[in-house]
Amino acid sequence: MNYQRKSTDQVRGPWPVVGSEEVQWAGALDAGASRRQRLMARGPYHAAVVPHIARSEPFISSPVAALAEEATIDMVRFDRDFGEDAAPFAALLLRSESAASSEIENLTAGAKKIALAQLGDHSSTNASLIASNVTAMRAAIDLSEDISLENILSMHRVLLEATHPEIAGRLRTQAVWIGGNSPHAASFVPPRHEAVEAAMVDLIEFIRRDDIPVLTQVSIAHAQFETIHPFPDGNGRTGRAIVGALLRNKGVTEKVIIPLSSGLLANTKSYFEALGSYQSGNPERITEMYAESTFSATDNGRQLAASIRDAQSGIYEVLPHNPSESLRWTVDLLMREPALTAEMLIELTGQSSSSAYRNIATLESLGTLKPSSHIKGRKVWIAPSIIEALDEFALRAGKRVRG
Question: What pLDDT is stored for residue 3 in this prediction?
Fold first, then answer.
C-alpha cells in the first residue's frame, strides 16, 4: 500500500490533535453492496494519524480538575466502605460492570441468562459474550499490577477466545472503521494497522507516568486506546476493562471494581461525543464525563450492595434455627454466584456431596433457590433474590439520558 501523509503534527492548544493520512484502498465490499456503495468506496480514503502522548501535558480547567479529584475521593471511599467483607460484592460489581460495558456495545441480557452463560449455557449469544466480558474484566484486575502490551493482549484473548479465536489476543492486521460499509463512508477510521503497535507502546509509556491526576490519566488513556482501536473487534469492552485495571494499578481501588460503565451507560451519546472531542485535541470532556459517571456509578453500586445485604438477611431469617456451617457456606456463596450446581458448591466450599445436596434441598424448600435447567448434564439452581438485585442495578444504569 502507498501512503501519503498530511496533518500529522496539527495541534490545537496543549493537547495534540488526531491528524489524517491518505491511504490507498485495497479492500472489497460485501457481495450485497449496492452500485452506489461500490462507487463511494473507490479510490483512497483517510485514516487517522494518532499522535504520541507519552510526554504530553494535559490541560484540564480548575472546575473539571476539582470534579475529577472529588470523584477519585468518592471511588476510594466506595472501595473502603466495603471493608473486609468485600468478596461477595466484588464479584457482583464486576459482573454488573461487565454487563453495563457490554450494553454500551448494544449487547444486552438479563442477569439470569448471564449467570447461566457463565456455567456454560450457550443458548443466548449476547449472554455468552457478556459472560466472556466478565472473565476478561477479572483477568484485567488480575493483571493490573503490570499494565503492559502483553497483558492487554491477554485481556483481549480472554474476551474473544471463545467466539473469535482467530483474532483473540492479536493486534489487527487490517483496516477497521466505525460506521458505514467502507472506510470512505465511515464516521471514524482508526490508524492504519502498521502504526498500531508503536501507538500502543507509547500509550503504555503514558499509563506508567505518575505525575498526572489519576482520573485524568485514566480517562485520557481510555480515549487514546479507543482512538488507536488496536483490535478488529472488542475494543470498547477491552478499553473499559483497562479502566478498571488502571484504577487498581494506581491504588484508587483495592477490593472492588467501580462500575463506571453503568455511569457511562446513562448517556452514551455524550460518551461518544467526548471521545470525538478528545480526538479534536480536547481531553477535558472525557475527563469530565468519567468524573460525572463516577458519582452515579458509586451510588448505583451502593444500592446494589444494600439489595444484596437485604437479600442475605431475608434468607437467614427463614433458615432453620442454628443452621449448620455448611448451610451458611452455601448461603454466602449465593451472594457472589447466583447460579450454581451441586458440583460447584462442593468444589468452592469444600463440603461433602451429601451436605451439598441436603443444603440445596433445604434452600429450595424455603424458596431461596429455584431449579433452573441442566447445563452440560448438571442440574442448575438460581437464587431469585440475587438475580433480581442484579437486574435492578442494570435497570437503574439503563435509564439513559436522551438527547
Answer: 34
